[in-house]
User: Fold this.
Amino acid sequence: MRLLVRSLLLLLGGLVFFALAGVVAVWAPDQSVETLGQRWAGPPSQFVAVDGLRVHLRDEGPRDDPLPVVLLHGTSDSLHTWDGWAAVLSTRRRVIRFDLAGFGLTGPNADNDYSVNRYVQQLGAVLDHLGVQRVVLGGNSLGGHVAWAGALAMPQRVARLVLVDAGGYAVAPQDVPVAWRLARVPGLRRVLEHLLPRGLVLASVRNVYGDPAKVSPALVDRYYDMALRAGNRRALGYRMEQGLADGSARIRTLVLPTLILWGARDRLIPLQSAEQFARDVPGSKLVVFDDLGHLPHQEDPQRTVRELQRFLDGDLVN
Assistant:
C-alpha cells in the first residue's frame, strides 16, 4: 500500500512538474516598446505624438512628392508588412506608413476604442502632423476598411484609393486565424495576455498565406514580438469584441480612382468581397493573384507593387 501511495505521489509530482514546465515554456509577459524598438524601430522609424498616442511611423522618399502614398496595415499587423512595397516605391515616391492604435509599436489608446471611425481620426491626425494635404491612400484588411472610410470622410485629401484584400462587406470568412478565434473568448483572451505559444503565432500567420511554406522564422518573430508589445493583446480582444459593420451602402458612394488587389487564396476575406468592391466602385480596377492569400503585398511584394506602380503612373488631375 505504501509503495502504491509513493508511486501515485511521484506520478502526481511528475504531472505537476510537466504542467509547470509547459506554462513556463509559453509564458510571455508584455514587453516595453523601448525593448522591442531596439530590433523593430531602427532607422527610418520615428515616434510622433499624435491623437494622444506615441505613433510608430516611417516616412520615406522624396519630400517634394505632391501626392504621397499612405499605407495602412491590418489587424494584428504593423507597418513592417509594407517593407517590400516601400523599398520599391520610395525611390520615386514619398511613402508614409504607421502602426495603428493597438498594434505594432504604437500600442493601445486610452479609451479602448478600436472602431473604424477612431482609426480614421488617427489617420487624419497623422496627416495633419506631417503637413500632408493630399494622398494616395492604401490599406490591407482592417487598414483597407479604414482607407475607404477615410476617403469618404476626407474626400479633399484622398486622390486615389488602393484596397488590398480590404474589409467592408458582411461576407463570412472561410477560415479565421486561431489567435483571433481565441481572442474572441473573454476568459481565454485574458489568459493569452500572459501566455503566447509561438506555435499559435506560426499557425495564424500560415493561415493567411496562399503558400504557407513562405512563412519564415524571421516573419514569425516579427508577429510574435509585435503581439508582446505592452497592451496589444488586450487591445486585440477589444478589436474582436467591437467588430466591423457592413459598409456596402457607404462603399457604393465612393467616386475616386480605385485599384483593388486581391489574393484568390484569401480565406479570411474571400474573393467574393473583391468582386463586390469592383461592382460597387465605378471605374475601379480589380487585379487578382491566383496563388496568393490575404497578404499579397507581403507574400509577393515585387509582383504586386508593379500593379500599384501602373496605377500611380496613370493620368490623374491633382
Observations:
- The chain has two domains: 1-30, 33-313.
